[in-house]
Specification:
This protein folds into two domains: 191 residues, Alpha-Beta Complex (inorganic pyrophosphatase (n-terminal core)), CATH 3.90.1640.10; 121 residues, Diaminopimelate Epimerase, Chain A, domain 1 (Roll). It contains eleven helices and eleven strands. Helix 2 runs antiparallel to helix 4.
Length: 333
């Protein structure tokens, strides 16, 4: 099932954030914060910044997420739980950086007394009691920064650091085309709140030693189909078994092959026994969002993803077929 793509922003963005802030302030019950599967820096950073801000206001919060190893350094002990089987009674559920009802993780959405949906993906179906979707923002963490400006909090390094983490990761450390003056201004303000910027940018690049052995295997699979306009690579469970457990980040792999000269699309396939996940990056107006949306996924024009319940070879065929359509739409093949 796919959702309609709507890359228009909120006509009343500041007012919507004020409304959300007021609801959070007024809520007397528990607040549960969740995001998407395979969380990246924006998913974690958005949730953690919101949790810490609400905690500083005396709210009762639960942050549910399986934290990737390379992002564990951002958390204090017991700040996150892996998952909730049921929601506490009279819970407000805050779902950040993900299409509500699809690819969320951490807690069931059923049973929430009230649901807030904050996201920057145009493919978000806008489900929830209070919804704010702003595709013009580089990261959901940038939206959370805006939201926190409407709460009576005191900015601290503990709140600003995860917020900046989300902006850094979703802009590729300010290398991606979603970097603009607003992003840099917000980042500067967060740094002014005491973020140790040098430590943070260095620490975000750390990976387990086995990651680099896995990287060699992944790079050996690189191919350039569709007249060399596409760069692909893949990772299989068999490859992982040869190297051993590795805290890999798919964004790293697709982020490397996207710089192959002359390519318009980069696709990374992560195959499992019963499904294959894809990460897609594009440039020059070619839409990763359109490619992934057609396959039941979502994301942004320049960066998107999907999960197909197909083995690797069938997934590759399906994804390349949609990629060809998108390249043809632009008159590139």
């Amino acid at each position: 099932m796919t959702h309609k793509i709507d890359n228009s922003g909120e006509a009343n963005y500041p007012e919507k954030l004020k409304e959300i802030a007021q609801k959070l302030l007024d809520w007397q019950g528990p607040i549960v914060i969740i995001s998407h599967v395979d969380p990246d820096g924006d998913a974690l950073g958005s949730c953690l910044a919101l949790k810490r801000a609400l905690d500083s206001l005396g709210k009762t919060t639960t942050f549910a997420m399986e934290i990737p190893g390379y992002l564990q350094f951002l958390l204090k002990e017991n700040e996150a739980v892996p998952a909730l089987e049921t929601l506490p009674e009279n819970s407000l559920l805050a779902v950040l950086d993900v299409d509500l009802g699809r690819r969320y993780v951490g807690a069931p959405i059923e049973g929430a007394a009230f649901t807030i949906n904050i996201d920057h993906h145009g493919s978000n179906p806008r489900i929830g009691d209070l919804v704010c979707v702003e595709p013009g923002k580089a990261a959901t963490a940038q939206m959370i920064k805006d939201l926190l400006e409407h709460l009576p909090i005191s900015w601290t390094p503990d709140i600003a650091t995860p917020c900046l983490t989300g902006i850094l990761t979703d802009t590729g450390n300010f290398k991606y085309t979603n970097t603009n003056a607003s992003v840099l201004k917000d980042a500067a303000e967060l740094i002014s709140h005491g973020v140790n910027y040098g430590f943070l940018t260095d620490r975000l690049q750390w990976r387990e030693k086995t990651y680099f052995k896995m990287l060699g295997k992944v790079m050996s699979t690189v191919d350039f189909p569709l007249e060399g306009l596409v760069a692909t690579a893949y990772l299989t469970a068999e490859m992982e078994a040869e190297v051993g457990p590795s805290d890999d980040d798919s964004n790293d792999y697709v982020g490397l092959i996207r710089y192959a000269e002359g390519t318009k699309v980069a696709i990374f396939f992560k195959a499992r026994a019963d499904h294959t996940k894809i990460s897609v990056r594009t440039r020059d107006g070619v839409s990763a969002q359109a490619i992934c949306h057609a396959l039941g996924g979502g994301g942004h024009v320049a960066a998107a993803g999907a999960k197909l319940d197909l083995p690797l070879e069938e997934t590759q065929k399906a994804v390349l077929a949609e990629t060809k359509k998108e390249l043809e739409r632009h008159g590139l093949i």
